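Write out this protein's structure.
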Amino acid sequence: MKTDLELALECAVNVYHQYAMRYPMDDYLSKEEFSSLLKDTAEPFLRNTVPPKTTIDSYIQQLFTKADANHDGRLKFTEFLTTLSLVAIDAHNRSHKGPGDDHGHDHGHDHGHDHGHGHGHGHGHGHSHRR
């Protein structure tokens, strides 16, 4: 039986290929493919991760710009992994801050962990339906 992390990593590879193999059929994500991928598969997660006073679209643009290390206007798989780590780091930081939360640090951390776990399951189910 596969672990949650194993499934999440496998899912990241599969989702990348699903979107990268759209038009043009290559093994890269264009800015549009990258934006579609995140909006289709992770928008609820992004909504809780996006920095204050930032729209999801501008957050996605920031992620794309940071990850596009060779500045060719598209993301290869290793650059895509950079965006996943940036989002995970933002989510982890937010889980510790718990803005507007009266229950303090512990509740903020628990919520972040639960949300991440729930996202993994929801995303996995969503991906299965696409196959």
